[in-house]
Structure prediction request, 330 residues.
Amino acid sequence: MFKNLMVASATVVFAGSLAACGSSDGGADDAGGSDKITMGFAQVGAESGWRTANTKSIQASAKEAGIELKFSDAQQKQENQIKAIRSYIQQKVDVIAFSPVVETGWDTVLQEAKRAKIPVILTDRAVDSEDTSLYKTFLGSDFVLEGEKAGQWVVDNAATNDVNKDGKINVVEIQGTTGAAPAIDRKEGFEDKIAADSNIKIVASQTGDFTRDGGKKVMEAFLKSQKDIDVVYAHNDDEGLGAIEAIEAAGLKPGVDIKIITVDAVKDGMTALAAGKINYIVECNPLLGPQLMELAEKVVAGEEVPQRVETEEGAFDQEQAKAVLADRQY
Ligand code: AHR
Prediction:
């Protein structure tokens, strides 16, 4: 991933709301004469509970901010997102926001948006491009840090994670979508931390495409191919929930016979954590809507925004999940 972005990172939490501002050159003002900001948002898809919560947050926040939202679901296909972005350029929206399915292959369409003078905001996931002038800002999580938190938990709990008590901790990894920033970065962060203990090894790793069904299928295959699995590291809750189904179908107890770590902390994941079926969840916050609308208003008004806006998040063990579950919004 393009590391210079991280160098410029700053944690910014916006409070309050800004008044809607005028549009940029070539935007909706020029097309229709309205003062209302129009945003074109190209979403990844509806692959996970996290994504559903993210979409709801964006739609509700746009409504609240008085921003007209044109929304498209790319069904996890880059070509669909590129088509959606081109259509937003044609429609002369004021601002384009999107969460890239994969990291690479965006320069051409982003150059088209730049030529049309339509500012672009990256939300949730970054692009791997050396030309940072192609977007105004990137709002989202530090996925490397999330992977590090997961890896550190395996290291810190090495004694209990060695379920089969043979001195080795065999980890199977269910990766997110191949080429997606969270899959690349969560793997990298996790591997960095487990390198501290030579007894911890990733013995198998495959993509589950961030879906429950994908997680289930990959785990079924791992249970057949691997004799000794101590830990499952799933890149999101949905994959972990699919893995639980496969583990139970094999007559084993998830969370006990095989430890499970996931990322997201959506309600279904937290419910499984509180029930003892997952052992640890690293949080990834999907509620990006309010910050996105604030940023959109600023970039449309031509104001400076930080190049990187990072979301704040924590992590939960089973006791912490029990304590917060009732109040979990998503
Ligand atoms: O980009 C964020 C990731 O994408 C979330 O962890 C996952 O659930 C989603 O599909």
